[in-house]
Design goal:
The protein has 289 residues and is of the alpha+beta class. The chain is 47% helix and 19% strand.
Amino acid sequence: MTITAALVKELRERTNAGMMECKKALVESGGDMEKAIDAMRKAGQAKAVKKASRAAAEGIIVVLCAPDGKRGAIVEVNCETDFVAREERFKKFAEAVGNKALAEGIQSCEELQEKTDTARLDLVSQLGENITVRRLAFYEVESGIVGAYGHGDANGVRIGTLVVLKKGSAELAKDLAMQVAAMNPEYLSIAQIPAERLQKEKEIFLAQTMEEGKSAEIAEKMVAGKLKKFSAETTLLGQVFVKDNSKTIESLIKEQNAEVQTYIRFAVGEGIEKKEDNFVEEVMAQVRG
């Protein structure tokens, strides 16, 4: 596989490592980004690996709860440019899509797309950009509570979350929704972390520790500590509460005799790759042509 400059650039951005180390790791991994990152982490070259999801598409997140907190919906609506994402007609369309999902209890994105497609096509013709209803999540409870939080500015919400409690208050549900938005936990609890993920992290931590010249006994204790920290930071229940760092989320919900059923977090464009325009290259190509 050809190791392109774009691949090297992405690896540098995700690892904060040097260009030559990145290129070498990609060559040795056959261009596999994740294998290259694992190898660099084991060698101690990757200091701070960033998450793979890249918010490359534009758009808006609509997150809504019913007044009684018994149902909630979160929808991502995408467009091509940030200019259109800030456009009032686009924002009104996205809001209407979210309200429809909530009011009608729509749980399938395909159904939501079908029911809003006429308005979507009309907006496409007005704004001149492709607009899509990308994804949807809908929750409804009988005895619990749904909390919602949207993070953004006057131009729209970029991150939206829903938290479903089996037991607990509306205030707690909103606090936890804010926690999910801010700290982006990968799992609800340690029990949900796949065994293979823990084994992979253990191998990486062990390789890092041995590189430091530690004895096997000390290395084992250090790895156990790092795994404990990893498990806490990547789970909602294990994380420190952002509004009170003297307690964890697990201790917070125990204090309030609450129980978290599930949560979801949408960020605009995550997982979608967007073509990066290079104006200089485009101009030079035209000159050469």
